[in-house]
Amino acid sequence: MSYLSHARATLALGLPLIGSHLAQMALHVTDTVLLGWYGVNELAAVVLATSTFFVVFILGAGFAQAVLPMVASAVGRGDETQVRRDTRMGMWLSIGYGVLIYPIFWWSEALLLALGQRPEVASLGQDFLRIAGLGMIPALLVMVIKNYLAALERTQVVLWVTLAAVGVNLVLAYALIFGHWGAPELGVRGAALASVFVQSLTFVLLAIYAGWLPELRHFHLFQRFWRPDWQALAQVFRLGWPIGVTSLAESGLFQATALMMGWIGTVELAAHGITMEVAALSFMVHLGLSNAATVRAGRADGAGDGQGLRDAAKVAIALSVAFGAVMVALFLTFPVQIISLFLDESKPQSSEIIAFGVILLAMAALFQMADAMQVMALGLLRAIKDTKVPMMAAAVSYWGIGIPCGYYLAFHAGLGGIGLWAGLVIGLVFAAVTMMWRFWHRVR
User: Fold this and answer.
1) Does the structure show a pLDDT above 70 at 36?
2) Does residue 384 sit in helix, strand or coil?
3) What is the DSSP letter of 258?
4) Is there a single domain that holds both residue 376 and residue 285?
5) Quick one: pLDDT band at residue 347, thresholds 50, 70, 90?
6) Strands, DSSP E only, in 85-223?
7) What pLDDT score was predicted for residue 40?
8) Is 400 helix (H, G, I), strand (E, B) or coil?
């Protein structure tokens, strides 16, 4: 295949995945906005509770993410039986994980109080998590089916189902939070019920598509689902748990930075939150391209096509770099306009938030390429089933280098919030260089 053909194939896979990632973010934004209208304590509780849910979710999602390269590789080999085995055991592991971690949500008030949260916020957070925790299993199963379909290059349906979920969540959460249209007024519990319903509905729709679409029936995805397949389960577990830990290390880097930014000041924390939202939107594009690269490179690896694997990797990296360059230009050219989108400029301290946000957006421009390259390298390494060394590289880069550097620069070198973001840049650069070297060394 020519480089142009690789680019077309990568974009055909990646664009719907990018759209679905952005739509997934919209689910979180919807709940945040609605509860912001409902009450301050409710908003604070759900922001805290959803962060807790996400940390637990991201660890368990490693098994779902392992399905993507494993299925892609099996398709490349023409092994349809292994496609079914790997996906089915990915679902088994997701269900088992969801059952094991539910007690964390049931007794979450004690955990939140131990972290120094106010009693009323901790109580509301537990009300949310006791219901929302029931959605952990369908949420993880959705991830498994999404990755199964992506590996089979069926990404359009993932986009449309996710977009539909955003609409259903908006209507249902609005009714249950505020008590409109004859529904009971449930506040945070209404938001949790809406989330569980939407996650369950999404799984049912994707499962019906994956199991009964004529073009996919020959995989017999749900055939004898109740029967254990210990060999496949062990393979998915071995590949999946390091992916979960790697994702946890990266998300923990940003969570810890936000916590330390709160020690510096309210204005700095507000500017940090806005800038991170902007950076996260950009990151979703790189993540979608990385998912597409995992599929393309995984299929080539399964087929034993070393040249195709390297060419697919080069094209995916080039696309990610090109988009990153555009975002760097936007961040540096229109920083005030971008930050102002998130603020009412007539309110007190808005000008201070904008001024500090402009500086942070320049720092975000610095780590755009590094963030793009580390997530692309992770996707490519997963394609060749290399997850344990990247896990160790992530832990060292983010927690051995990024966090200590950020803390020192912020609180000992006197750079404040800028120092914290410099730590992010250093950690991400180290991770990008290490993981890219690892990938090209493996496939040289």
Assistant:
1) no
2) coil
3) H
4) yes
5) low
6) none
7) 62
8) helix
- Domain final position from 171, 203, 228: 228
**Domain end among 195, 228, 261:** 228
Residues 258 and 379 in one domain: yes
- Cβ 366 vs Cβ 411: under 8 Å: no
H helix runs in 78-115, sequence order: 80-106, 108-114
Are residues 432 and 409 located together in one domain of the fold?
A: yes
Tokens of 391: 């896990």
Give CA–CA dist 430/424, Å, rounded: 10
The better pLDDT of the pair 441, 32 is held by 441
Give the count of beta carbons closer than 10 Å to the beta carbon of residue 107: 11
Is the separation of the CB atoms in 32 and 47 below 8 Å? yes
Contact 299, 76 (CB under 8 A): yes
Residue 66 lies in a domain: yes
Q: Give the count of domains, the chain.
A: 2
Residue whose token pair is 């994980």: 97
Q: Which amino acid is at 4?
A: L
- By the 10 Å C-beta count (0-12 exposed, 13-18 middle, 19+ buried), 259 is classed as exposed
DSSP, collapsed to helix, strand or coil, labels residue 413 as coil
> Do 270 and 151 share a structural domain?
no
Q: Say whether both 128 and 265 belong to one domain.
A: no
What tokens appear for 96 in the block?
């088992």
Q: Which residue has the higher pLDDT, 345 or 267?
A: 267
3-state helix, strand, coil in the chain (%, to 5): 85, 0, 15
Q: What distance in Å separates the CA atoms of residue 335 and residue 331, rounded to the nearest whole number?
A: 5
What does the pLDDT look like over 97-110, one tens digit per residue?
999 999 988 988 88
Residue 236 belongs to some domain of the structure:
no
Mean pLDDT computed over 133-147: 90
Residues 257, 149, single domain; the answer is no
- Residue that is written with structure tokens 């938001």 in the block: 191
Q: What is the pLDDT of residues 377-427, one digit of tens each?
A: 998 998 888 888 999 999 999 999 999 999 999 999 888 888 988 998 899
User: What element of type H or E holds 347?
Assistant: none
Q: Could you tell me the two tokens for 244?
A: 């979960």
pTM check: above 0.90: no
Average pLDDT over residues 306-332: 90
Domain of 319 in residue numbering reads as 241-444
